[in-house]
């Protein structure tokens, strides 16, 4: 049914309506009306966004003795400028050489709340982060040890005051202000770089530039802290959001807005990336897949 809808969306407007299409694609014949069978509202929004539709409104509708969705959507941008309020959450574990990047990055976030989490940095890096945050009115959370990427994100979420959270790695360069764009894509769910596919065949978006509505994070219990320093925590977040019915939207053109430079922390030798990846994959499998064979 999803494939049929994608084929239907690809057709010119004048060829979308009629009993023939209703028969082929399982869709109703009136503009904006879909049979509810096979669709959830978040998935329907996701498909429409992927097809380039914006300003999507979906409501329940009763027609032909069936429960349907009534959909209003357009591909045009709204003439009214939408200003999204977001809190920027950035964990740090040393690597304060990247503060040179942030001298420029903060210029794009003049209207945003910025929160840095110092995840157990060495004394020299602690001082550099404190000075930088003081100079740029950035809120700073200090941890004596590295609690992990997810735990640091959760600390930032608790302090955040805005409707959306934009999670960023510290090794990113901002090309242009991405907040409004990413917030609109996130909508009532989340958006991030991708799609990517893990070795289990699951689709997810990456966490180095992930925008999510704060109430969605609260509804799904935030980032899972089971994964230590990192890896698979973004897969877990997407899985929880999907289970809860929130849309996960890919941003394939993310590099027009944000560039991920080096994976500086993960590749500095303090973390065995391969061992951590294998360990965390095992944690994920135990959480979401049965280990007992079905007879």
Structure commentary:
This protein has ten helices and 14 strands. Residues 18-37 have low confidence and may be disordered. Helices cover 33% and strands 23% of the residues. The chain is globular, with a radius of gyration of 21 Å. It has 295 residues and is α/β, with parallel strands linked by helices. The protein has helices at residues 2-9, 19-25, 41-50, 99-105, 123-135, 149-159, 179-186, 214-220, 233-243, 273-288, and strands at residues 33-35, 54-63, 66-74, 86-92, 113-119, 139-143, 164-168, 172-174, 190-192, 196-197, 203-204, 209-213, 248-250, 258-260.
Structural class: alpha/beta
The helix/strand order is HHEHEEEHEHEHEEHEEEEHHEEH
Provide mean pLDDT, rounded: 83
* Rg from Cα: 21 Å
Q: Uncertain regions: pLDDT < 50 for 5+ in a row?
A: 18-37
Question: What is the percent of helical residues?
Answer: 25-40%
**Main sheet summary:** 7 strands, mixed
The largest beta-sheet arranges its strands as: 6-5-4-7-12-9-13
Instruction: Note the total helix count.
Output: 10
Overall shape: it is globular
Q: What is the number of strand segments? A: 14
**Percent of residues in beta strands:** 15-25%
- What separation lies between the terminal Cα atoms? 31 Å
Secondary structure topology:
Layout: H1 2-9, H2 19-25, E1 33-35, H3 41-50, E2 54-63, E3 66-74, E4 86-92, H4 99-105, E5 113-119, H5 123-135, E6 139-143, H6 149-159, E7 164-168, E8 172-174, H7 179-186, E9 190-192, E10 196-197, E11 203-204, E12 209-213, H8 214-220, H9 233-243, E13 248-250, E14 258-260, H10 273-288
Parallel strand pairs: 4-5, 4-7, 5-6, 9-13
Antiparallel strand pairs: 1-3, 2-3, 7-12, 8-14, 9-12, 10-11
């Amino acid at each position: 049914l999803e494939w049929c809808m994608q084929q239907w969306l690809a057709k010119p407007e004048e060829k979308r309506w009629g009993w023939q299409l209703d028969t082929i694609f399982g869709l109703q014949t009136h503009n904006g009306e879909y049979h509810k069978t096979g669709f959830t509202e978040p998935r329907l929004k996701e498909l429409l966004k992927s097809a380039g539709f914006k300003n999507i409104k979906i409501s329940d509708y009763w027609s032909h003795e069936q429960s349907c969705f009534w959909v209003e959507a357009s591909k045009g941008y709204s003439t009214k400028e939408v200003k999204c309020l977001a809190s920027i959450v950035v964990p740090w574990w040393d690597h304060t050489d990247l503060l040179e990047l942030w001298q420029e990055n903060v210029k794009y976030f003049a209207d945003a709340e910025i929160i840095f989490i110092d995840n157990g940095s060495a004394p020299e890096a602690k001082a550099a982060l404190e000075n930088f945050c003081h100079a740029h009115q950035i809120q700073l959370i200090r941890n004596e040890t590295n609690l992990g990427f997810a735990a640091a994100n959760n600390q930032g979420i608790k302090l955040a005051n805005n409707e959306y959270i934009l999670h960023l790695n510290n090794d990113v360069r901002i090309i242009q202000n991405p907040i409004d764009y990413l917030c609109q894509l996130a909508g009532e769910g989340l958006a991030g770089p991708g799609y990517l596919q893990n070795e289990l065949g699951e689709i997810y978006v990456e966490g180095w530039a992930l925008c999510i509505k704060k109430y969605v994070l609260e509804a799904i219990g935030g980032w899972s802290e089971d994964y230590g320093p990192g890896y698979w925590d973004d897969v877990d977040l997407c899985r929880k959001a999907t289970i809860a019915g929130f849309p996960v939207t890919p941003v394939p053109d993310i590099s027009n807005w944000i560039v991920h430079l080096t994976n500086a922390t993960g590749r500095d030798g303090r973390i065995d990336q391969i061992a951590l990846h294998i360990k965390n994959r095992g944690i994920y499998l135990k959480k979401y897949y049965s280990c007992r064979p079905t007879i």
